[in-house]
Design a protein that fits this description.
Elements lengths: L15 H21 L6 E4 L2 H14 L6 E5 L4 H12 L3 E5 L9 H7 L4 E5 L13 H10 L3 E5 L18 E5 L10 E5 L25 H16 L4 H18 L3 E3 L10 E6 L4 H9 L20 H5 L4 H4 L2 E5 L6 H21 L8 H14 L1
Parallel strand pairs: 2-3, 2-4, 4-5, 5-6
Antiparallel strand pairs: 1-7, 6-7, 8-9, 9-10
Helix pairs in contact: 1-6, 7-11, 8-11
């Protein structure tokens, strides 16, 4: 951990003690750029994906003050959705694109939503809950044709799918370190050369004037190394996919009234979102936690909320599936033994919870009442 102990100089300083740290920052920037096949000068270090998304969105609208429309989707991460909701209160018009039962976008709807008055199109590369991959390059081409800046939240995708910014329609792209085995509290924003950019954090000259504040050197050095390793292991995602597929097939075969949420043909290789009908997802998570198994329901950034996942609601899933859906995320460190453990424990957990459940069929009156309330809320 030399950058927490021995090399603690300020990389912006002119003395040699800071200069040697500056070299490490330069190398880290090159490592991040290599993973994206981008130019190092196009990389801006941030504290996380949320900051990157905020910076991208606010830069896009600040550089185009005469354009007052933003296009995004109903299934974005809160780091995008909540910024857009705030901007609506400030006079911006935001179009929230819908998705179908498998979480897919309709390109015709995308085309119709983007106009000459659109300042920004902000759409995630892949959904953080279902793993469904969106046709970002096709969307980017539409945005370019109509003169809008195109931002992509790729926090879930970086390191999982090959990216090539040199041949991309993407103007700005967000990534976060903790999604590719770097520490929490570090991220990066790709900003294509030539894209007008106004800084979100205003202060010193750091990051070529695009993000003020003394650099988090230990964090960004770790992010650089994580990106280097992610690029080296990009072929290993086939192993992750094989384990994910085995997990899904085993659970579907062993547990009745279970279904996969999302689009099976275009998904991240490490993500699965599974709906176990007639039980609560929170109860499943608590039971799994007792066995040392970590899963999630919805986004970790909204895990304190008892509201159903906004992503699954936008997909129009029935209440019986909606409330019993959980996400498993695998990595290159996931083992066959860990998958076997889930397959061994999960059937008993679901069986026990269903035995205690107040509803055990779609015809249950209590369930039908919730379906009506959900339908009313979605209107």
């Amino acid at each position: 951990m030399p950058y927490l102990t021995q090399y603690y100089g300020n990389p912006s300083s002119m003395h040699s003690f800071g200069g040697q740290v500056g070299k490490a920052v330069k190398e880290a920037r090159e490592q991040v750029a290599a993973l994206l096949n981008a130019d190092p000068a196009e990389i801006v270090f941030t504290s996380c994906g949320t900051e990157g998304n905020n910076a991208a969105i606010r830069a896009a609208i600040a550089s185009q003050p005469n354009k007052k429309q933003i296009v995004t989707t109903q299934v974005e991460h809160p780091a995008v959705l909540n910024v857009c909701k705030t901007l609506e209160k400030q006079g911006y018009s935001v179009t929230y694109l819908s998705v179908d039962r498998q979480g897919r976008l309709d390109l015709d709807e995308v085309d119709a939503a983007i106009t000459g008055g659109t300042a920004l199109v902000s759409i995630m590369y892949a959904n953080n809950e279902t793993g469904t991959i969106f046709p970002v390059e096709q969307i980017g081409a539409i945005a370019k044709e109509k003169g809008a800046i195109f931002h992509v939240d790729a926090v879930q995708a970086v390191g999982k799918v090959p990216l090539n910014m040199k041949n991309s329609t993407i103007d700005m792209l967000t990534l976060s370190g903790h999604k590719l085995h770097a520490p929490k509290g570090i991220g990066a924003l790709y900003v294509r050369k030539g894209v007008r950019f106004r800084p979100y954090l205003i202060g010193g000259h750091q990051e070529r004037g695009r993000r003020g504040g003394t650099e988090n050197v230990p964090g960004l050095v770790a992010l650089g190394k994580a990106c280097e390793l992610a690029l080296h292991h990009i072929g290993d995602v086939k192993k992750e996919k094989a384990l994910r597929d085995r997990l899904e097939k085993g659970l579907l075969a062993a547990i009745p009234d279970t279904e996969i949420n999302g689009y099976p043909k275009e998904r991240l290789p490490n993500t699965t979102n599974i709906g176990f009908k007639y039980i609560e997802g929170e109860a499943i998570l608590l039971s799994l936690n007792q066995h040392g198994i970590c899963a999630s329901s919805g986004s970790a950034c909204t895990s304190g909320s008892l509201e159903p996942s906004h992503v699954l609601r936008a997909m129009g899933l029935p209440y019986s599936v909606l409330h019993g859906s959980i996400r498993f995320s695998l990595s290159r460190y996931t083992t066959d033994a860990e998958v076997d453990q889930v397959l061994a424990i999960m059937p008993e957990v679901v069986e026990r919870l269903r035995a205690m459940s107040p509803f055990n069929s779609d015809a249950a009156s209590w369930l039908q009442e919730h379906e009506k309330n959900l339908a009313s809320a979605n209107r």
